[in-house]
Fold this sequence. Notes:
Number of strands: 8
Mean pLDDT: 87
Oligomer: single chain
Strand order of the largest sheet: 7-6-5-8
Strand content: 5-15%
Order of helices and strands: EEHHHHHEHEHEEEHEHHHHH
Distance between the termini: 54 Å
Number of helices: 13
Largest sheet: 4 strands, antiparallel
Structural class: alpha+beta
Amino acid sequence: MKYYPLIKGFFVVLFLVLAGCHSIQKPQESGTKGNNNLDAVLLTDIQDGRLDMPFDQACLIASGIDTGKKMQSYLKKIDLLISRIKQETDINTTSDPLKKAEIIFGWLHTSTNEGTYNDCYDFRDTLNLNVGNCLSYAIRFTIVCRHFGVDIKNIFIPGHIYNMLVFEGQTRYFEHTHSDGIVKKRDLYHPDKKVMKDEELIAEIFLYKARNANIDMKYEESCSYCQRALMCNPHDNRPVILLLDNYIARKRYEEAFRYLSDHLSRHPDDMKSFKNTYVLLQRLCKKEDGITR
């Protein structure tokens, strides 16, 4: 869903495989585990490569929210931000999206940004502690902008995310991790920059979690997050690299080789990037096979 819902009541998307259709149902207010398994709901939603549930809820689930009660608590935090912006700024006096975005950015930057930390991707920390990195701050900005009818875009370059708004031939850029709020020229004109889909932002959260799990040598957990990242953004080869690293760390060379072979059959353009890894895994598999025999 690309537009912020007018009514922010909590709901989830449950897919029913009936004549190829799916329906949206509101969960019952019970404490049963089934109704609180929000992670499974997000994964079911994203299986078709498209995010249907509200963006704010998807970001919270990817960050770790696992019950309806917790979800409601964090949605109230977002509502409080919006309420404060209405009360503490003159945002309701203009209909110009560019001015609205500048007001929102300025207020968030001065009133709610307590620090920038490269690994602080968790959207919950941004709502609880007013800290974040380029990803979590961009997510917060996007959610608030959409509430006020501003069609903000998220711009990705390798290693960084910032925001952009285009309206009636005018373009504004918003940088959340530099004190001056100005996007640096090297980022502004980066040859690999692109506009991100909502699904790709969710993938970034999972990718951060996968990296951290890998660092902690929790390889199975890291693989799980890599798979989720790929569900959200199947054309990104970074989770593939991390998956292979997880397999190799456990000396599961044949499994790694099968996975890479399958990936390259579906993404032949990646062959150049993975050529050396492919050859290395091929040799390791032959060596392992020779030892086994």
